[in-house]
Every structure is written in C-alpha cells, then in structure tokens.
Amino acid sequence: MNTVSRLHQPIKEQTKFWRMPQYDNMELLHATFITHAFTRHYHEWYAIGMIERNHYTFYYRGAMHTIHAGQIVVINPGEIHSGEAIDEIGWTYRMLYPGITMMRQIAYEVTGKFWDLPTFPQGVIDDLDLARAIQRCHMALEDPHMRLMHDTLIRDVFSMMILRHAENKPMPLRLGHERRAVALAKEYMAVHYADNITLEDLSSQAGLSPYHLARVFRAETGMAPHQYLINLRVNRARVLLESGLPIVDAATMTGFTDQSHLSRYFKRILGITPGQYSL
Q1: Are strands 124-125 and 72-75 parallel, antiparallel or unpaired?
Q2: Which stretches make up the HTH araC/xylS-type domain (predicted)?
Q3: Helix residue spans in the chain (DSSP H)
Q4: How does pLDDT run across 223-236, given as a tens digit for each residue?
Q5: Does residue 202 contact residue 185 with C-beta atoms inside 8 Å?
Q6: SS3 for 124?
Q7: At what angle do helices 210-221 and 177-192 cross, to 10 degrees?
Q8: I need a surface site. Which of 131, 140, 144, 199 has the fewest CB within 10 A?
C-alpha cells in the first residue's frame, strides 16, 4: 500500500483497555472515539490522560471545555464529567485511572507530608513536558515486563503532576442543609442501588419534597438522581466483573434488567463493553 492510500484510510473507533493489579488495580485505556459520546458520569478514582490526536469537548465543574492534542485532561475522583467529539474525525487519547490510595502515597513520597486528597484544580492542563511524559509512560505500560521501569515511570509522571499542578484539599466536614440532603440521598442509593428506588424514597430520607430534592440534587452534582443511580450501578457492576462474576449475574445483582441493559450503560460511561472489561 502506498503512502497516499494510507493517508486516506478512514479513522475507526478502537479501544485497548487493561488493568495493572500491582498498582492498586490502576486501569489504562488507549482509545480513538468518533461517534461515541460519554454521558455525564463520575469515577471513584482519578482520570488522567493526554490527547494524542485532534480534540474533543467535555462537561466538567458546571461548564463545557475543549481540549486539544498535546494537552492533559485531569478529572478528580467524584467529579461529574462527560466527553464527545467535536467533528467527524473524533479524537485519540491515552488515559490512566489511578486510585486515591496510590496518589496519596506518591504525594507523601515526594513531599514528606500526608495528603487528605491530592486535587487538581484545572481540568485542562497545558504542560507539554508532562504530556510527553504521560505518553511515554503509558506506552511503556503496554509491555507487561520491566516492572522496575514501570515503577519508575509511574512515580516520575504522578510526582511531576502533583508537584506542578496539585493542591492538598481537605475532606469536607460540614454540609449545609441542602447539601446534607443530597448526601443522605447518595447514602441511600449506595445501599439500595439494586432496588427500584423512587424519588419519594429519596426525599423521605433527605427531608425535602421530591421536587425540591430533584432540583437541589441536580444543582449540587450536575446529574439527575436517576443518572447518579445508573452510574452507581455501573461502578458496582465493574467491581463484580473484576472479581470474575459473569456479566449476566453482575447485571441482575446491580439492578439492571438484563445483560444488554448493563452493556448499554457500561459503554456509555466507561467507553468499553463489559466483555472487554472482563478480559
């Protein structure tokens, strides 16, 4: 095949996903998305990556942002976000999903201080040296060998991120009445996520009317209560799949009607299918 024909090959959606148990079960993704759109969702871990090709737009902290090739995207744990293409050729990125425990440990190693929560105030970071370091690290982590090299590169990248761009954010201790109501609704869903929860169930726990709770919940989280519940179910299903449970059982145990119901939302939120995640 000559150079001209290669240049005109259509870009296709593709994903490569893997998990590294030796690093607090950190997940990694190398993906090209064109038509896929991430619905608003959150993770219980960080989402850190560099854009290799083109650009995309995403919702984060109450606003839409555009990120371009060479820039870094950082989503803190628990933050609502989305993602979708701007044009017909989509985007390609390399993502790492480290857990809070590992990031705290690295923050302690590089500063000698205990961190409540390493937090990155900017969702889009312009730092070309760091972006290149993330790319090199991610590419090296595709090779399952050379543990010592992996240990070094991971610490190089995350320590550079923490020293240059993080702040130590204390965990919130007090909540106002409405924020407390949202917290109570979240706590109820965390326990009863597999049930057919109603808005009245949540409002009785939160001490607000159903109408008021729905408005406050969306204003506080950026998601409607049912969207938050779906995200919670997907996260619980993810844990079950990671333990080796069959997809159909994970679906029924987390409140989805069947395997296809879980698969639809799993792909919208995580960008891969339950089958890919289970490999």
Answers
A1: antiparallel
A2: 183-279
A3: 3-7, 100-111, 128-141, 147-165, 177-192, 199-206, 210-221, 225-242, 247-253, 259-270, 274-278
A4: 999 999 999 999 99
A5: yes
A6: strand
A7: 90
A8: 144
Helix-helix angle 225-242:259-270, to 10 degrees: 100
Residue 5 has pLDDT above 60, yes or no: no
User: For residue 176, what pLDDT is reported?
Assistant: 61
Cα–Cα separations (whole angstroms), residue 150 to 13, 39, 138, 141, 192: 28, 32, 9, 6, 39
How does residue 24 score in pLDDT terms, banded at 50, 70 and 90?
very high
Cα Rg of the chain, angstroms: 20
Rounded to 5°, angle at Cα 178 from 172 and 182 = 70
pLDDT (mean) for 66-82: 96
Q: pLDDT by residue (tens digit) across 127-176?
A: 999 999 999 999 999 988 888 999 999 999 999 999 999 999 765 544 46
Residue 18 — left, alpha, or beta (φ > 0 → left; ψ -120 to 50 → alpha)? beta
Give Cα separations from 267 to 41, 186, 261 (angstroms).
Answer: 12, 23, 10
CB 219 within 8 A of CB 225: no
* Longest distance between any two alpha carbons in the chain, whole Å: 68
Report whether 217 contacts 187 (CB < 8 A). Answer: no
Average of per-residue pLDDT across 7-11: 69
**For the whole model, what pTM was predicted?**
0.87
pLDDT value at residue 254: 97
In the chain, the domains with their CATH numbers are 13-168 (2.60.120.10), 177-278 (1.10.10.60)
Q: Which two tokens stand for residue 155?
A: 């610490």
Distance, CA of 266 to CA of 148 (rounded, Å) = 34
How many other CB atoms are there within 10 angstroms of residue 53's CB atom?
A: 14
How much is the average pLDDT of 239-255? 96
